[in-house]
User: What shape does this take?
Amino acid sequence: MSRQGQKESGKAILADVRQEMAKPRMAKSARKEEVNQAAARMKWKYCIEEIMFGQPIKNLEGQLNDLGGGGWEVVAAFPSPTPDAHGRVFVILKQPTKSE
Assistant: This one.
């Protein structure tokens, strides 16, 4: 590309940048507020699962990955309160539902 071509290309790019910079912008605090309002409108459904996983922890990971694949997110997990419940864990999950 010749020097003249480079100069014209640079001017075109500069004009595009100026045009883009002239557009109104939303303040970062306003964007945060918008996100917070959207989160406040979010509706959730909850589920409690008792998972038996035995010894290999991979079994528990696999079961949790299957639930996650269905859109469920783990909120809390705790071992079963009964003394004979070795290898059992209760998991509280949540999943977004459509806002009404």
Remarks:
- The longest strand covers residues 43-52.
- The radius of gyration is 26 Å.
- The mean pLDDT is 80.
- Strands lie at 43-52, 73-79, 88-97.
